[in-house]
Structure to design on (224 residues):
């Protein structure tokens, strides 16, 4: 898979609520990537991880928690609860991936038998966290996932990211992986985005590449 080093596969948010036809925040074509991801799971990655968006009912990213705000179109400024100087501009969403609902479960088409770990994220109701590594605020009391430490303890050097949504959680997770020092690949055709407009996917690709993420396809020689 990689000539040297140890590789992990990170499957982002392949959950019922992100998949048609019934998902609360369905990503177009979201379910269609399951076969490709199952094939990736047959490869000899040292560690296979699935992430789940895992929100409390009253999560700040839900439009329902704000008066007169519409999902998808309204933005909202989130202030770091531990440091009011720091803010985060974010989109408000329909309620999705609420803990202990079927919407937050991994889709049944995903072969979970080869998963070594499931990382839940977005549990801190006060902040948004697209990245599986944690929210963008680095304050001691804003909860981070243990993903970076877990990967390092497992001796992982290379991280391959795919899943949903290309332009939100896949992007943020891949960029954080690169920032954490892992050689990072984002697999575009094993991912789907919310914004399918002409420029959307390419703009996301550019942003990832700016941070050192290598965008590849399933036919890449990395998988030989
Ligand atoms: C996501 C929007 C809100 C994602 C999560 O998984 O990309 N997008 N929460
Ligand atoms: Zn979310």
């Amino acid at each position: 898979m990689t000539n040297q080093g140890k590789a992990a596969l990170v499957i982002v948010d392949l959950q019922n609520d992100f998949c048609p036809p019934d998902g609360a925040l369905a990503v177009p074509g979201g379910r269609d990537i399951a076969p490709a991801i199952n094939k990736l799971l047959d490869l000899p990655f040292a560690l296979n991880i699935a992430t789940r968006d895992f929100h409390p009912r009253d999560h700040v990213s839900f439009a329902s928690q704000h008066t007169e705000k519409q999902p998808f179109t309204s933005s909202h400024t989130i202030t770091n609860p531990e440091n009011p100087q720091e803010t985060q501009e974010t989109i408000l969403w329909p309620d999705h991936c609420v803990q202990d609902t079927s919407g937050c479960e991994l889709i049944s088409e995903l072969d979970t038998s080869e998963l070594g770990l499931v990382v839940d994220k977005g549990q801190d109701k006060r902040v948004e966290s697209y990245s599986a590594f944690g929210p963008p605020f680095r304050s001691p009391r804003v909860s981070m996932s243990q993903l970076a430490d877990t990967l390092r303890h497992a001796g992982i050097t290379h991280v391959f990211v795919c899943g949903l949504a290309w332009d939100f959680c896949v992007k943020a997770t891949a960029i954080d992986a690169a920032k954490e020092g892992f050689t990072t690949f984002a697999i575009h055709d094993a991912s789907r985005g919310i914004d399918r407009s002409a420029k959307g996917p390419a703009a996301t690709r550019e942003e990832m590449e700016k941070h050192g993420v290598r965008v590849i396809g399933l036919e890449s020689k990395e998988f030989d």
About this structure: The longest strand covers residues 183-192. The beta strands are 7-12, 47-53, 75-79, 87-91, 117-121, 158-164, 183-192, 214-216.
